[in-house]
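[Q] Does anyone have a clean structure-token version of this?
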Amino acid sequence: MEAASDSGPWGLAGRRVILTGALGGIGQVIAAAFQRTGARVLLTDLPDASAAAEAVTASGLAQSAYAACDTTSTDDVTALFDRAAQVFGGPADIVCVHAGVVGSHPIVNYPVEAFDDLMAVNLRGSFLVASEAARRWLADEAPGILIFTTSWVQDVPWPEIGPYSASKAAVRSLMRTFARELAPQGIRSNAVAPGIVGVGMAKRQWDSDPAYRSRAQRAIPLGRLQTPESVADAVLFLASPMSAYMTGATLLVDGGASLYPMDE
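[A] Here you go.
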């Protein structure tokens, strides 16, 4: 898949997009990619107004609207979609269920509170956002596109992030259920499953922890960290008319990490 460009044949000009988790390292790249296609984007994340404004400006996303949202809150999610209707003058066409968190602890010592917090964001938040989007499309008798972000570790456990792996496996199952139940109404639901992306915690560990870097290099047949741009390309594909006959699918973009267990 080629990198997204201003003139790429995505067919997304004027499309209305909600992107959760928009101010994270991958989220910002996805948002910028949508902007380049001519789509209209409502960014949402947790930071307060001043922090969000600074992040949006610094990342070159100022042309997009922003709304803070705790995706684990039903009231916040409802308000987010109300805000989207105001910004767009109608419902969103595409909802990217991207917000997520990760934590690292040995499985037998994983704090229960951290487990609960992670599941609240990754699973409950995904369910609330996708459900609200689907209800509004059904009420309007309109088609829609859901794009979830899962992970290669939904299938291949990675040490010390067991709850994250479990949450992403659950999100994939949730995505398939939305696809199965809502296809007759013209609502498509797919997921992109990235590998080890060179942002955030993975990038910090790659740069600072030789043992982690050695383990990660063994786990990636292509031998290098994934770029966030490759994730954005996959999201644009799933949002575009080029994927019009896909629903219930997981687009695995992981450098081959899921081909076999990493341990020799």
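[Q] Thanks! Anything notable?
[A] The first strand starts at residue 16 and ends at 20.
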